[in-house]
Amino acid sequence: MKIKALSVSEINKYIKRLLISDPILSNIYVKGEISNLKLHSSGHMYFTLKDEDSKIACIMFKANCDKLTTIPQNGSKVMVKGYISLYERDGLYQLYVNEMESSGLGDLYIAYEKLKAKLEKEGLFKSENKKTIPFIPDKVAIITSPTGAAIRDIISVVKRRFPKTSLYVFPVAVQGQLAAPSIVRALELCNTFNDIEVIILGRGGGSIEELWAFNEEAVARAIYNSDIPVISAVGHETDYTIADFVADIRAHTPSAAAELAVPKFVDVVETLETINRRLIYTMNIKIHEEKKKLDAIKNNYHFKYPLNYIYDEKQQIDELNKNLVKTIRQKIHDHKVVLNNKIERLNSLNPLSVFSRGYAIARDTEGNTIKSIEQVKMNDVISISMLDGEVTARVENLIKEDKSFGKNGLRESY
Fold first, then answer.
1. What is the pLDDT of residues 262-310, one digit of tens each?
2. For the CA atoms of the chain, what is the radius of gyration?
3. How many C-beta atoms surround the C-beta of residue 238 within 10 A?
4. Measured between alpha carbons, how far apart are the two ends of the chain, in Å?
5. Model pTM?
6. Residue 158 within a domain
7. Phi, psi angles (nearest 5°) of residue 254
8. Where's the OB-fold nucleic acid binding domain (predicted)?
């Protein structure tokens, strides 16, 4: 007897009927912690419900989401009511949620918020501590899993955008207990290379548990202490990890991180060509302006006839010299006139000038000037000073004259 083979669709439909017909699975309450929450543009909500050991995919349609008073967050502890069914296209069984009640925050979410607040208080997230990404890095390090899609995406994007950039891959574990120490060692190793200019650190998307290595304190401090700029490339667009806050730049996917790390080669070439054209245009304008200035200088009167300026100055100097000599001579003449006037006045006051008019001065033997006949006696020896010498004489006669005028207006002698 030949057994009939079932198609994949038939298998999935059969399993779906089994799940729906199960009395327990068709109306079930489940409690757990929400992770990997996504709000679709359609209004549906997709998330994972998990506990310490397992997880289950969940969907809550828009009609049921509209009944919620608050939108849950990753890390929220909830109790949901719904049924288990199969999504036939992907063969994925999931929990279809009709109702949801909050029952607090999950342990991982509490730990995440606590560490975030601690590091933020210490200043690890401050923008002034962020390092600048070089415009065209020559060497880029990639810290990620060597087997994941993230490494392929990063390499592909970098080589497409800027083929001349050298890439160095530092393979690490990106989830599990060994992930955080592995990432820390890779960051420290990268910083021993002086020529590496940028580090891309990340992985593809996942649940909060799968991404937890990027929420570890040791990883955050290793990123902060890195002398090389770090781009966080954890492929989880809606949620931030601690690494995203500490990193110098956060990219929502590994591909986006590669785009941030290097520019497009064609864009760089186009920019350089634009700058070159602007430089040539600016230089041509500058040369044209300088030529105009040069022509103006060449046509300038003083440039054409440079000696004329000297001749004009010499002529002016001659005029100044002529005026100076004239002024000096006039000054000398004026001063001579003043000087002669003063000399004449002095001569008029000079007692010796009377000699030139025939007068003489008589003195006694003691040198006293004899002004009156009363000062001498007969036989006194006197000296008489004249214009050209001195005479010594003896008094032999004294004649006293009356200097007063008589009644007839004549002097009288005795």
1. 999 998 899 999 999 999 999 999 999 999 998 888 888 777 788 888 8
2. 61
3. 11
4. 208
5. 0.54
6. yes
7. -60, -35
8. 6-101
